[in-house]
């Protein structure tokens, strides 16, 4: 099955009871047992729910993995995966990750003794140097949020294999439509499904896919123990959204390419970060390991005041947190999604106060270009 066919048919079969083509929303918390322990595969909806199962099978198919698991948010998915580790374990993680991932590691899991070193994982020597005796996993976000740095999944997976480490990849920006980290050697892939997978700014959700059953069982144990599961209605909304992922991703990318090229030659823009640009240091690697470049662009206009001016002047770009929706979204990461990263660290990373991040929607690209053109007049 090819990708667009998988999006329609993967994991989602007609309801055996009625033949309903759309997976029913099993809005139920518990299931009748014929006698103790005798049930039809479901006993309690934290442990499993048929609507959730359809979604979990769909994402496992899309990511070429063995087991899919669905959560109430991307952070619930990430936190559950991080709960695999023990006190005294150590992770090497991309320095340019979503602010919430940085926060949960530096302010929550650190209290339980999980150590983390944040490095630029697009530089392989930094990854090697950060590995310690107690390192258990490498965690990549590629392309990263918000600077779109590209890390070499295959090369890092070889390091992980040699050193017996797990490789975890946050594939939110690419989605399985463009990139399949498990095929490149990762053990676990995770998503904020709130973004492109849902695609319509109407659901908060997270997904995990494991390479093998054993890891899947371990994470299911943690999912059931911790309890951050997705509800049936949100699972259904995601399945519905994901059917059009291919159509949306192609449009996001086509418009993003046009906009990135426009921004690159704009005199008021100091720097553009988009892996699809030949000038991007990760361009060749992105071409090798992914089938597309995605719809996220960051660009630097030089100061907070100038960034604010752009944000005030745009009409079609919605000023908001989040990304990956049909509507274009604009934000200033330093003061929004990445505010929980200390200012000093942000400055070192290049997440300046003048850095603007756009999630290119599926509106007509001419309108988006005109909108940016009239907004870049500070
Ligand atoms: O928001 P939530 O569904 O809990 O997902 C967290 C998350 C995980 N990974 C990546 C790469 C993300 O971008 C996010 C959430 N990001 C935003 C809300 C944002 O605007 O960047």
From TrEMBL:
GO biological process assignments: cysteine biosynthetic process via cystathionine; transsulfuration
Keyword Aminoacyl-tRNA synthetase attached: no
NCBIfam families, sorted: PRK07671.1, PRK07811.1
Cofactor entry: pyridoxal 5'-phosphate
The species this protein was found in: Thermoflavimicrobium daqui
Keyword Transferase among UniProt keywords: yes
A GO molecular-function annotation: cystathionine gamma-synthase activity
Alphabetical list of SUPFAM superfamilies matching this protein: PLP-dependent transferases (SSF53383)
Keywords (A to Z) from UniProt: Pyridoxal phosphate, Transferase
Top-level EC class as recorded in UniProt: transferase
Family: Belongs to the trans-sulfuration enzymes family.
N6-(pyridoxal phosphate)lysine modifications at: 195
PROSITE patterns, alphabetized: CYS_MET_METAB_PP
The protein, known as: Methionine biosynthesis PLP-dependent protein
Its EC number(s): 2.5.1.48
A cellular component annotation (GO) from this entry: cytoplasm
């Amino acid at each position: 099955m090819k990708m667009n066919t998988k999006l329609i048919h993967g994991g989602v079969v007609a309801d055996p009871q009625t033949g309903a083509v759309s997976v029913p929303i099993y809005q139920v918390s518990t299931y009748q047992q014929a006698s103790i322990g005798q049930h039809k595969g479901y006993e309690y909806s934290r442990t499993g729910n048929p609507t959730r199962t359809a979604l979990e099978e769909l994402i496992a198919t899309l990511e070429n993995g063995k087991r899919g698991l669905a959560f109430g948010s991307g952070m619930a998915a990430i936190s559950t995966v991080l709960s695999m580790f023990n006190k005294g374990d150590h992770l090497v993680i991309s320095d340019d990750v979503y602010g919430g991932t940085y926060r949960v590691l530096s302010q929550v899991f650190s209290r339980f003794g999980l150590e983390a070193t944040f490095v630029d994982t697009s530089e392989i020597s930094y990854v090697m140097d950060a590995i310690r005796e107690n390192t258990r996993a490498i965690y990549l976000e590629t392309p990263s949020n918000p600077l779109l740095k590209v890390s070499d999944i295959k090369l890092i997976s070889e390091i992980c294999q040699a050193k017996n480490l797990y490789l975890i990849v946050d594939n939110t920006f690419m989605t399985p439509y463009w990139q399949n980290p498990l095929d490149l050697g990762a053990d676990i892939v995770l998503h904020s499904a709130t973004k492109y997978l849902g695609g319509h700014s109407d659901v908060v959700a997270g997904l995990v896919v494991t390479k093998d059953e054993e890891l899947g069982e371990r994470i299911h144990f943690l999912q059931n123990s911790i309890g951050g599961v997705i509800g049936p209605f949100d699972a259904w909304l995601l399945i519905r959204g994901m059917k059009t992922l291919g159509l949306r991703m192609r449009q996001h990318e086509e418009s993003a390419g046009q906009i990135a090229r426009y921004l690159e030659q704009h005199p008021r823009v100091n720097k553009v970060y988009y892996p699809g640009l030949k000038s991007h240091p990760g361009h060749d690697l992105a071409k090798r390991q992914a089938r597309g470049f995605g719809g996220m662009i960051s660009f630097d206009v030089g100061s907070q005041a100038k960034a604010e001016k752009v944000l005030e002047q745009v009409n079609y770009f919605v000023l908001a947190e989040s990304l990956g929706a049909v509507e274009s979204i604009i934000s200033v990461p330093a003061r929004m999604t990445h505010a929980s990263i200390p200012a000093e660290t942000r400055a070192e990373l290049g997440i300046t106060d003048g850095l603007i991040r756009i999630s290119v929607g599926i509106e007509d690209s001419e309108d988006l270009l005109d909108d940016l053109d009239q907004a870049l007049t500070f």
